[in-house]
Design brief:
15% strand; four-stranded parallel beta sheet; alpha/beta; 191 residues
Length: 191
C-alpha cells in the first residue's frame, strides 16, 4: 500500500504541485488514499474513504480470509455457478463479472496472501491538515466491523471527519451497486 501511495505522491507533486481537490478510495484503494493524503508534500481539500481497512487484524483472521479468497478464486476459475451467483449478489455487478474472471484466471495464491498481508498491516493514523475535510463511509454487514473501527479511530485523530454509516450494506456495496447514490453522498459532503 505504501509503495503505491509513494508512486502516486511522485506523480501528484510532479503534475499538480502536491495540491489536490479530492483524494478518494474504496476498500484497499481507501487505504492507499489515506496513506497518500498523509505523505509530505501532499495537500488535499477533501479525503473520501469508503470501507477503508486502516487497522491491522489478528493473523488468524488474515489466514482465514486468505483461505476464503483463494477458495473463491479457485471456484471462479472453474466457473462454479454458485460462486459466481454469490459474487453477483454480494459484491460484483454483472457488468464486471467478465473483468473479474480475467483477473481470477491469472491471479496466484501468493498474490492474494501478499495483498491481504499488506492491506491489514499496521496503519499509522496521521493528523491531516485541519482544513482537509474527511468523509469515511461504511456499511454494517460482514467485515464492515473493521471499517467501523477505522472510521471511529479516524474521527478521534481527525475531528473534522464525518462518518456516514449505511445500515444493512456490505463492504463496498454502495459504490458497487448504487453508484448514483454514492456520487450524491459525496456531492452532499463536498457542499
Amino acid at each position: 500500500m505504501e509503495r503505491e501511495a509513494d508512486k502516486l505522491r511522485e506523480y501528484v507533486i510532479r503534475e499538480f504541485g502536491g495540491n489536490l481537490f479530492m483524494i478518494s478510495g474504496l476498500s484497499m484503494g481507501g487505504r492507499i488514499a489515506a496513506v497518500l493524503a498523509g505523505l509530505p508534500g501532499i495537500f488535499t481539500e477533501h479525503l473520501v474513504l469508503d470501507g477503508a481497512p486502516l487497522n491491522s487484524i489478528p493473523k488468524f483472521l488474515i489466514r482465514f480470509m486468505t483461505k476464503n479468497y483463494i477458495k473463491i478464486i479457485i471456484k471462479s476459475k472453474a466457473r462454479d455457478p454458485k460462486t459466481l451467483a454469490s459474487c453477483r449478489r454480494d459484491f460484483l455487478p454483472e457488468r464486471y463479472i467478465e473483468d473479474f474472471l480475467k483477473i481470477a484466471d491469472h491471479i496466484e495464491d501468493t498474490s492474494i496472501r501478499n495483498i491481504l498481508n499488506s492491506v491489514f498491516s499496521p496503519f499509522d493514523y496521521k493528523t491531516y491538515d485541519p482544513n482537509t475535510s474527511i468523509l469515511f463511509m461504511h456499511g454494517t454487514k460482514g467485515n464492515e466491523k473493521v471499517s467501523r473501527k477505522c472510521a471511529i479511530r479516524m474521527k478521534e485523530v481527525n475531528p473534522q471527519t464525518e462518518v456516514r454509516v449505511y445500515e444493512g450494506y456490505a463492504h463496498a456495496q454502495l459504490m458497487s451497486f448504487e453508484q448514483n447514490k454514492w456520487i450524491r453522498e459525496v456531492q452532499d459532503f463536498l457542499k
